[in-house]
Design brief:
67 residues; mainly alpha; 4 helices; 84% helix; elongated
Amino acid sequence: MNKGFDILALTLVIIGAVNWGLIGFLKIDLVALLFGNMNWISRIVYALVGICGLYLISFYSRLSSDG
């Protein structure tokens, strides 16, 4: 179960990173384009990406304990 959540969190953070890259390079907000500009769905997507980013901070402790 934990591995599945790790994969989901990593996937959402990658989507968020690609979105930020598109904003930085092309001024295109993919989430707003797909779901609307700051409606409730886009806010949920942004919140989930943020929560997953915070969760992935735990990867640092796992990397140091594996090595």
